Each structure stands twice: as structure tokens, then as C-alpha cells.
Amino acid sequence: MKFNNEFDTNRETWNAKVAIHADSEFYDLATFKKGKSSLNSYELKALGDVSGKSLLHLQCHFGQDTFSFSRLGAKCTGVDISDEGIKLATQLNGELNLDAKFVCCNVLDTSQFISEKFDIVFTSYGTIGWLPNLKPWAKMISERLKPGGFFYIVEFHPIAWMFDYTVSPPVMKYGYAQEEAIYEEYDGTYANKDSKMISKEYGWNHSLGEVITALSEAGLHIEYLREYDASPYYIFPELLKTADGMFELQSKLYPLIFEVKATKKT
């Protein structure tokens, strides 16, 4: 596969992140095990009642969102490139007495490992930036959806990824729809900046036009594209906390979040 080096580097970094993230306040695994949901208001509102529905969670890390949907009654399958992430997810699935399934593979290869079709395909917060091209991604999503089923993504806005956050203050450095890979190497992770691990990562910026066009060309009907100032996560510098616990830029010069819902044609 093209980009093997980039995918292998990212896999190694995510494998190293798993134990650090599982032990972090950001993921708060102890509270999660006691029943706290990891889901945010955007995805909860968009997906509605998932009870009895089959759900495919793409790039699931170690499965917290997958389990949160399982607790709401969905029949869930999670996919992730990280061996360690899937190993921990499988362990937690037994510990929590849930019935989710997990598959370790590159998300672009999902249809080679999973033949089932789903009512919902879901992905969220920091996922498409790991993919060099969205056309095979969208094709896979269409393949895995039942006719009448829907895909939902809530993701950080592409404008936010135009900045280099390894310097302070951040500098606008990358293209809005940059085709070339962006390589970054930095200490720690977003969940524990004091960690001694070194994150080595390849990423790609995707415009909203690319997202919408890829999904449309794959046979999905776009229900909506929405953009928001408020992020549920404080992962960008100098954000202000709102009264409802979200985070925004003081200037509000550009949105931090977008969401898309798209339906598989019958």
C-alpha cells in the first residue's frame, strides 16, 4: 500500500499512546468504567436513539465511544489501526460485560475485514487527518452502510489544522487543502503533554469541499454540513471555557468544529 511508511509511523505512535491515554485525566478511565459516557452533545443529538441499531465506529482508539454507544443499546463494532488500542478495547469489553466487537486494521481496509452492513457509521474528533485521500475512505463508508443508513462525522475544523502548534504562539503554516503530508515530532500527547514519549506523526489536511465531494461521489446524500465555534475539547491553545463547559476562541475568527450527516441512498 502506498504511504506504508507513514501509516507504520502513525501506528507505532498510537500504540505508544494507548497506555499513556488509559492512565490520563483526559480519558478518565476509572470514572468511565463506573458508567460515565464519553460522548459529547454534538454526536448525541445527531445520532439520537441508537437502541437496537448496528453501529460501526471508525478509528475508535481503545473504544470509549464505542462502549458508550453500546451502553445506549447499539450493537457496536470498532475499528482502529493500533494493535495496542484494540487489545485494550477487547480487554475492557470483557471487563465491562459489553458485547462490542473490535477489529485491528487500517480504516481504509475495513471492507477487507468486515462484510456486515450497518445502520450507522460513525467517526469523530481527530480522525480524517490521518488519511491521505478521502475517496477510498468514503467508498468504504458507503460499502458498509445499509441502504437508508447514515454516516455521521464530527471533526475539528480544517482551518484549525492550518496552524503549527509546536511553537508558541501558533503560526499559520499549512495549506487549507494541502496534498503533501505534514510531519510533526513533539514531546507528549494531547492527553498528557508531560509524558516522556515522543509523538511522530504524519497527517493530511482536508477541506470541507473534499469531505463533501468524497461522500457525495460515493453515493451518499448529504443531509447537512454545520460549523461551530465551540469545541468539547481544549486541544488548541488559549481557548476560553464557556458557561456550558465547551471551549472557544476568544476572537471567534473561525470555527473549531464541523459535522456532516449523510444518508446511503435506497
Automatic annotation (TrEMBL):
Instruction: List UniProt keywords, sorted A-Z.
Output: Methyltransferase, Transferase
- Gene Ontology molecular function terms on file: S-adenosylmethionine-dependent methyltransferase activity
> Which Gene3D superfamilies does this entry report, sorted A to Z?
Vaccinia Virus protein VP39 (3.40.50.150)
Give the GO terms filed under biological process for this record: methylation
Q: Which Pfam families match?
A: Methyltransf_11 (PF08241)
Question: Is this entry keyworded Transferase?
Answer: yes
Family matches, as InterPro entries: Methyltransf_11 (IPR013216), SAM-dependent_MTases_sf (IPR029063)
Outline the extent of the Methyltransferase type domain: 57-153
Q: Which residues form a coiled coil?
A: none
Q: Does the keyword RNA-binding apply?
A: no
- The protein here is known as Methyltransferase family protein
Q: Which organism is it from?
A: Aequorivita sublithincola (strain DSM 14238 / LMG 21431 / ACAM 643 / 9-3)
